[in-house]
Amino acid sequence: SQQGEEDPQALSIQEGENATMNCSYKTSINNLQWYRQNSGRGLVHLILIRSNEREKHSGRLRVTLDTSKKSSSLLITASRAADTASYFCATDDMFSGGYNKLIFGAGTRLAVHP
Amino acid sequence: ETGVTQTPRHLVMGMTNKKSLKCEQHLGHNAMYWYKQSAKKPLELMFVYNFKEQTENNSVPSRFSPECPNSSHLFLHLHTLQPEDSALYLCASSQERGGSGTQYFGPGTRLTVL
Q1: What is the pLDDT of residue B101?
Q2: Which residue of A25, A33, A43, A87 to mutate against B (max B Cβ within 10 Å)?
Q3: A16: how many CB neighbours lie within 10 A of its CB?
Q4: pLDDT at B54
Q5: Cα separation of A109 and A98, whole Å?
Q6: Is A107 exposed, middle or buried (0-12, 13-18, 19+ CB in 10 A)?
Q7: Are the CB atoms for A17 and A1 separated by under 8 Å?
Q8: Are B90 and A42 in contact (CB under 8 A)?
Q9: How many CB atoms lie within 10 A of CB B2?
Q10: Is the pLDDT of residue A15 over 50?
Q11: A/B interface, count of CB pairs below 8 Å
């Protein structure tokens, strides 16, 4: 079953604005990751937050995790046209038997207009 | 993107053709993955290889046949495909047992089945 579900499905903003994307999941996790995908390309890892962490920063990215609500958010501050991409959350399967099985959501398509 | 490479980048094939996709990782990882990404659908995990052993076959039709000759190379052999198999096929690798859980993706092969 699908683990991560992103909200909104699509987001359109102007350069300089902040973009917030949300992710909900269903089962217990070890960590949650966010990935970015430019159109028709591979995914690029952005940030990982562990289940015992509540907030993490990396440059213009801020990720929060609320395990009680089984949700996470990704905030991109001062967005740029180059941030235009799809963003995916991925959760690991805690009972996957020792290897790193990730389950991806459907993604949020972000468009940043100059 | 030089960490994980995929060839070819684009492939058009007829339903009766046999072709192979190749993935190579230069990161010293010991787990490799094949994913299928169709339009407007979440990323679907197809196969997982952990230390060259297949540990996951996510109910993939037998017309897709993976091969992992060593921990750096992964192939996906294609035979008698259907038009609905047209998609972006992504390869990824990760470091198990002590790794961060992050997966590193190749740029993908855009497959079109006529």
Answers
A1: 77
A2: A43
A3: 11
A4: 75
A5: 32
A6: buried
A7: no
A8: yes
A9: 7
A10: yes
A11: 65
**Helix H or strand E segment including A23:** strand A19-24
Q: Chain B: which residues have CB within 8 Å of chain A?
A: 1, 4, 6, 31, 40-43, 45, 48, 50, 55-56, 88, 90, 92, 94, 96-97, 99-108, 110
Which amino acid, residue B81? L
Whether the CB-CB separation of A34 and A22 falls below 8 Å is answered with no
Distance CA B84, CA B79 (A): 14
Over its C-alpha atoms, chain A yields an Rg (Å, rounded) of 14
Vertex B68: Cα angle to B73 and B56 (nearest 5):
120
Contact A12, A113 (CB under 8 A): yes
- What would the two tokens of residue B50 be? 């952990």
- pLDDT tens column, B9-44: 999 999 888 999 999 999 999 889 999 999 878 899
Distance of alpha carbon A84 from alpha carbon B75, whole angstroms: 31
Q: Which residues contact B86 (CB under 8 A, 6 or more apart)?
A: B38, B111, B112, B113
